[in-house]
Structures are given as structure tokens and as C-alpha cells.
Amino acid sequence: AGLDSLRAAIAAMDERHHSVPTWVFGTRILYDDLERQQARQAFFEAKRTYYQQRGDTLNLAACYHALGDDYRYRGDFNRAVGCCLQAADWGNPARALHYLRLALAAPPALGRYPGGLNRALAQIYMRQRNYPAAWQALVRSMRPDPATARADSVGAHRTHLFDLVLGLTLQGHVLLAQKRAADAEPLLRRAQYLGDSLHFPLTSVVGNF
Fold first, then answer.
1. I need a surface site. Which of 13, 30, 149, 207 has the fewest CB within 10 A?
2. Which phi-psi region, left, alpha or beta, contains residue 112 (left: φ > 0; alpha: ψ -120 to 50)?
3. Lowest mean pLDDT: which of 4-8, 25-29, 41-45?
4. For position 204, what pLDDT does the model report?
5. Using CB atoms within 10 A of its CB, is residue 97 exposed (0-12), middle (13-18) or buried (19+)?
6. ∠ CA(17), CA(127), CA(176), 5° rounding?
7. Which bin fits 56, alpha (ψ -120 to 50), beta or left (φ > 0)?
8. pLDDT for position 98
9. Distance CA 115, CA 91 (A)
């Protein structure tokens, strides 16, 4: 009943052309509670197409974050990377920053993913050439999330490695943007090494940043 009510509320907001990204992303945890993973993916893919056509960048970003989390959970890191990058590709930086801060402040029960959210923050700061803020967001993105990390969880370990690969790569880009190639090189080399351990080609990822 809770999922149906939330979906109906989102549909009502869609008719009014109101963005409700926290509601859209919040459906993910309800699908998880019902163990309806295929229905969850179908919902977000359909909404992604709908919001792309409508130009609703905030709701679209929420869909990409949810799909990215789904691919990350299943170990499909290439597709998770693509969703992460798409989620950060918003046309209104001020609104995007506002949404990201709200999402980071949300309780863990809402299914937030701090690594991806902080990377999205960093990418917006990089476009604004606020390199110190971008660097700090990337530092936060590479910290293990205490709400989800478990010492005996292989999935949590792989997720942390994934966060390190993208965080180090983006830190390298922050330095390159400041003409600091010598400082960037060791970070990018380490990211390449960790990327190889996850078995996805970092070169295909770097070209999208």
C-alpha cells in the first residue's frame, strides 16, 4: 500500500510539473522491502524516459541515482558508472546542489548512497571551478559508509573499491584542471590499479568525466 500511495503521489506531482526527486528516489527502498527488484528497475527506466522527454532534470537525476545503485549492487560497475555520470549532468547547478545536500542529509533508511552523491557534488563544483570544494567532496566520497559497510560483506568491499577508483580519478582531474599534471599522475595510476582489480576498463570511464 505504501508503494502504491507513493507512486500515485509522484504521478500527481508529474501532472502538475512539480519535481519531487526525494520521493522518486524513495520508492527504491519500498521496492526493496517487497523484494521486487525487476519491477523496481522497470519503474525507474520508465520514469527515466518520461523525465528525459519532459526535461525534468531533478527527477531524472534521482532515477539515474537509483538505477546506478541497482547496477552497483549487482556488480555491473560499468553501467553504474554511466548512471553516476548521467546523474551529475544537470542543467541547473544551484538546484542540483540543493537537492544533493538534501539527499546527503536524509537518513540511511531512505537508501541514500553518499559515495555517488558526493561525487556528483564534486563534479558540479568542478564545473564552477571551485576546486577546494570539489576536492573535499571527493575525500568524503571515498570514506566507507558506516550505515552499510560490514566487515564480512564482499559487496561492501567492492563498493568501497569502486568509490576509491572514481574518487581518485576525479581527484586527478581536479589537479589536471589546475595544471598540476605531476601531482595527478600517481592518483590516476592508483585508480588504474584498483580499476583493474574490479575488472572494468578505467580508460572507458575517464573519457566520460
1. 207
2. beta
3. 25-29
4. 34
5. middle
6. 155
7. beta
8. 67
9. 21
Degrees to nearest 5, angle at CA 118 with 186 and 47: 125
AA letter at 163:
D
Amino acid code (one letter) for 109:
A
Cell numbers for 166, please give them.
Answer: 572514481
Cα angle 106, 111, 113 (rounded to 5 degrees) comes to: 80
Q: Give the Cα separation of 59 and 187 in Å (integer).
A: 33
| DSSP code string of the chain | -HHHHHHHHHHHHHHTT---HHHHHHHHHHHHHTT-HHHHHHHHHHHHHHHHHHT-HHHHHHHHHHHHHHHHHTT-HHHHHHHHHHHT--S-HHHHHHHHHHHHHS-GGG---HHHHHHHHHHHHHHTT-HHHHHHHHHHHTS--TTT--TT-HHHHHHHHHHHHHHHHHHHHHHHHTT-HHHHHHHHHHHHHHHHHHTS-HHHHHTT-
The DSSP-derived string for 54-86 is: HT-HHHHHHHHHHHHHHHHHTT-HHHHHHHHHH
**Which three three-digit cell numbers place residue 82?**
554511466
Buried b (16+ CB within 10 A) or exposed e, 103-132: bbeeeeeebbbbbbbbbbbbbbbbeeeebe
